[in-house]
Amino acid sequence: MSSTAQIGVTGLAVMGRNLARNFARNGYTVALHNRTTAKTRALVEEFGDEGDFVATESAEDFVAALERPRRLVVMVKAGDPTDAVIAEFAPLLEPGDMIIDGGNAHFADTRRRERDLRDQGIHFVGTGVSGGEEGALNGPSIMPGGSKESYASLGPMLEKISAKAKDGAPCVTHIGPDGAGHFVKMVHNGIEYADMQLIAEAYQLLRDVAGYSPAEIADIFRTWNTGRLDSYLIEITAEVLSHTDAATDKPFVDVVLDQAEQKGTGRWTVQIALDLGVPVSGIAEAVFARSVSGHAALREASRHLAGPTASTLGKDEAAAFADQVEQALYASKIVAYTQGFHQIAAGSEQYDWNINLGEVAAIWRGGCIIRAAFLDRISSAYEAQPQLPSLLADKSFAKEIAAAQDDWRTVIATAVTQGVPTPAFAATLAYYDSLRAERLPAALTQGQRDYFGAHTYHRSDREGTFHTLWGGDKTETES
Ligand code: NBP
């Protein structure tokens, strides 16, 4: 077999198949491989005329079809299947070759795999790919980690197949070494959870408090989508809300079981945030909200619990309330992104990745699920001040939140008095208020810790570590 393919894709389920087609449509010769060979043949039969494919049926033939250094994209189920594929292909590769894992791997696995393959001279490029199957075909947002050398060889190809932002910039950049790409993809998904939950809470308020129908709420979201909330998620939310179920003629959203599922990247984001000590409360509440929704038996057993007497607003009040909800949604969204970017900064520091936060925001402007007009603003904020301690420290975001905060508070207060659960709205506001507080009750917490565990405390008026003899005469000792 002659080595003509510039890139190869193994794992031809929806994502791999569409990525392979994307490479081929962009003029690359693509070697194809899948454990079940029927899928390889089906791809060539259906889409063979889209470009140059080299179908192979064995690992040896696949590797032989690739020009050197070999670029081998793995798009299989994350976890053990990825290790199995690496174990199958690594012995067939040579120093300088690249294995590009485009699956949703945990970044710790990516770090392990990169380390193991480095000794063999193989570049392992853990790569986040966002945009679902449509993105994979027409241009995803791509978050590659791995070595600089691998990006020099691979980058131009990824730039070609990636989504392009409105200004034409490719939605891909070298994120950083080893697991950096998969870490950033994980946080992207965490932010996605928060964004979706905030939109869902806005919907619930517009439905239960303002009394709008799903079709009316779809129109409200369409209007919002022409302003600062302009984003893919708001756009598809309007589509989902205006959809009518053909079988019952009811709004689609009323016939779907209200139990949200998850694949795990949101949970990982929160688990890792806890390890890093980063408060991602908006993302965490979004993950917990899905969890609560899935506890069907617990919810059933709790329906009798008392709540407030709820009332629906009149027409004029409802319109004004909808404007307030827009303010609340925007303010909470800024906080959720602030938390996500804090986590990326913390991960970057912990693992020495040197991630450019402005570039991360820039490559999320197109192709990915959280693409939104306001990522342009985040990107500019970090470009102007790469060491920005928090997005909330950016003057323009701080100004917008200042303008939104009265409505933000009113909306959450209304939700509380009406008994409508808005965990992500409330958590993001609490985070905002915690950050701006002159004093937090953490001083009292320190006192309690010192009382029961002699954990010591620091004073605000002088240096040192102190302990009060709580069980004795309450004198203070210094250690
Ligand atoms: P799946 O995650 O459903 O994986 C199916 C593929 O894995 C098939 O090609 C299958 O081969 C292969 N595979 C399995 Br399962 N076990 C294997 C093994 N032991 N050895 C070799 N191959 C094995 O596919 P997907 O939905 O296309 O996703 C691919 C990756 O992309 C996943 O990591 C996913 O998390 C990630 N991702 C998905 C999306 C999305 O929207 N779906 C978005 C972003 C990232 P077979 O045909 O022989 O069974």
Helix run count: 20
Strand % is 5-15%
Bound molecules: nicotinamide 8-bromo-adenine dinucleotide phosphate
Biggest sheet strand order reads 3-2-1-4-5-6-7
Mean pLDDT equals 97
Helices and strands: which structural class?
alpha/beta
In short:
The protein has 479 residues and is α/β, with parallel strands linked by helices. It contains 20 helices and 9 strands.
List keywords for this structure.
seven-stranded mixed sheet, 479 residues, alpha/beta, binds nicotinamide 8-bromo-adenine dinucleotide phosphate, 8% strand, NADP, two-stranded antiparallel sheet, EC 1.1.1.44
Question: What does this entry look like structurally?
Answer:
With 479 residues, the protein is an alpha/beta fold. A 7-stranded mixed β-sheet has the order 3-2-1-4-5-6-7, with helices on both faces. α16 runs antiparallel to α17. The N and C termini lie far apart (74 Å). The model has no long low-confidence stretch (mean pLDDT 97). Homodimer. Its EC number is 1.1.1.44. It catalyses: 6-phospho-D-gluconate + NADP(+) = D-ribulose 5-phosphate + CO2 + NADPH.
Topology:
Elements lengths: L6 E4 L3 H12 L4 E4 L3 H11 L5 E3 L3 H6 L6 E4 L5 H10 L8 E4 L5 H12 L4 E8 L1 H7 L2 E4 L3 H14 L18 H29 L5 H11 L7 H11 L9 H4 L9 H12 L4 H14 L1 H5 L14 H37 L5 H7 L10 H11 L10 H24 L4 H14 L5 H12 L12 E3 L7 E3 L1
Parallel strand pairs: 1-2, 1-4, 2-3, 4-5, 5-6
Antiparallel strand pairs: 6-7, 8-9
